[in-house]
Write a structure and sequence with these properties.
It is built from 6 helices and no strands. It has about 120 residues and is mainly alpha-helical. The protein has one domain. The radius of gyration is 21 Å and the shape is extended. It starts with a helix and ends with a helix.
Length: about 120
């Protein structure tokens, strides 16, 4: 890991970088990764519209990667994870389609519905 830290540090114009190997079979690694994307205390201050915009911007973007023998296994691991992925559960009302919008946009949509009746 010392060599990885020095090599990664050079890539990001530093003397060294803190590098860790995390087990991604659980969810604990997410705390480690997410703190580099945005601080939770900062995110909590954002308006809901900005949180939604952020989530949509980073959705399906990679913020870490595999290397070594794990890199070679990545396609097989992805296929297995996809096979074992549970179906998304609908909400209590049975709906499985969700829309996120600001309060103002929701009110305008409701007004437009009323106007078109």
């Amino acid at each position: 890991m010392a060599d990885v830290s020095v090599t990664w540090g050079k890539l990001v114009s530093q003397e060294f970088a803190i590098c860790k190997v995390k087990d991604v079979r659980g969810k604990e690694y997410l705390d480690e990764i997410c703190k580099y994307v945005v601080e939770g205390s900062e995110l909590a201050k954002w308006e809901p519209e900005h949180i939604n915009q952020f989530v949509r911007a980073v959705y399906r973007n990679r913020f870490f990667f595999s290397f070594g023998s794990l890199f070679k296994l990545a396609p097989l691991l992805r296929a297995e994870m996809e096979m074992n992925k549970p179906e998304a559960a609908p909400c209590d009302c049975g709906c499985d389609e969700f829309y996120y919008e600001s309060l103002q946009a929701a009110e305008v949509r409701e007004i437009m519905k009323e106007c078109n009746r």
